[in-house]
User: Fold this.
Amino acid sequence: MNLTRKKKNAIRKLLVLDYLTAIVAWSIFWFYRQDWLQKIHPDIYHDRNWVFRDYALAFIAIPVFWIAVYYLSGTYYDVYRKSRLLETARTFIASIIGALIVGFLAFANDVDRFSYFFEITALYFVTHFIVVLLSRLLFYREAKRELRTGKVTYPTLIIGDNGKIAKVYNEISNNPRVLGNKIIGFVTVNENIPAAAVPVPALGNVKQVEQIISEHSIEEVIIAVESHQHKVLEEILIKLSYTKVIVRVLPDLYDIIAGSVKTQNFFQPVLITINRELLPDWQQSIKRATDVIASLCTICLLSPLYIFAIIKTRLSSPGPVFYRQERIGLNGKPFYIIKFRSMYVDAEKDGPRLSSDTDRRITPWGKVMRKWRIDEIPQFFNILKGDMSLVGPRPERQYFIDRIIQTHPHYKFLHRVKPGLSSWGMVEYGYAENVEEMIERMKYDLLYIQNCSLLLDWKIKLYTLKVVFQGRGK
Assistant:
């Protein structure tokens, strides 16, 4: 079976397992409450809520609720790399939150004494947590067995010079505690490709690394260069910025003595994992859920404005209502952004150009739309599709990106996150009329990437609303 399909099947298996364990936990709790507590305290426990009266409906609603809770907690991300200890803690916290939500929605009006609310909620939490934890431990035990036997692997590439490559290969190959890493080959940091003392092939040099990663479906990259080679390391990271691989770096003795190396597993080779996921799993899940819910609500609430904009755009000038343009998104993947057309047809017949305050290509109605950002509203469909997010660096065209990275290759780091409807650069700097201004705005977006959080996202959303209501678009 294809490894990617096997990993997806593992997620489906965990989803089914969580659904079934939620049913088992609810059944145990339900029968204990109905056949024991209610008979002992008939004056305290009642059947006022539908979850106790309609057993069949609860069998559907309760498990779906728990799957949503665990999705938002990041449980279903990369299940083979999960730590059993960390997953136990994650399950414990998610179970507390979920039990409290169920308690307030289903138990609060079912008891006459408030003290019994906490008792029954605690009972449900303990029941659910124990049942789910046991099933999870069995699942992750089987996952570790598949890694240990080689049924599931992470195709791994080493980048470095001869001595370092051999060192990394030997440490990983000779350590039985390293699970899953299957070294496919190595890539040198030099133009020439000398033979290394390892039984895996040389796949090329670092200039070809993006193509090599794509051809061999590489999931992990280990960079083995000297720590003082900052320029080399930076160039490698820039090249890897358009890929989805996990990046690890081999530190040297000075790094360890200086205290700059932190590791969570003392039984495996010392490797620094470069955090390419800028938000924890649970925050990524919440951000995506927020994007979907906010987009659906906005599309519904602004549907009269949609209809008005469609009619007005059609009448304002000849041409289509919507304008589709290729932009570059997450990991350098192109997608088509959707806007209400605000310019005359063939506005770029002489080549790509950024708009300005005095741009004659913009229609009179287009100026109104741009001022209040009405032309951007169709991008909520891009957000629903998953090409964009509510918050993230604004997506640009490949033409302008190529011009920027000639002098500022760090621009590629912006593609580590989904592009957004609004961004810190748009809020603090605004629209760019030329490449120099795009570079200046990039600094704000890079700052966002280094400090991104759900709290910062909300701050940007609030500032964006302020900009929209003040009519500061263009």
Residues 256-264 have pLDDT under 50 and may be disordered. The beta strands are 154-160, 181-188, 202-205, 220-224, 246-249, 272-274, 322-328, 334-340, 389-391, 420-422. The domain at 154-274 is CATH 3.40.50.720 (Rossmann fold).
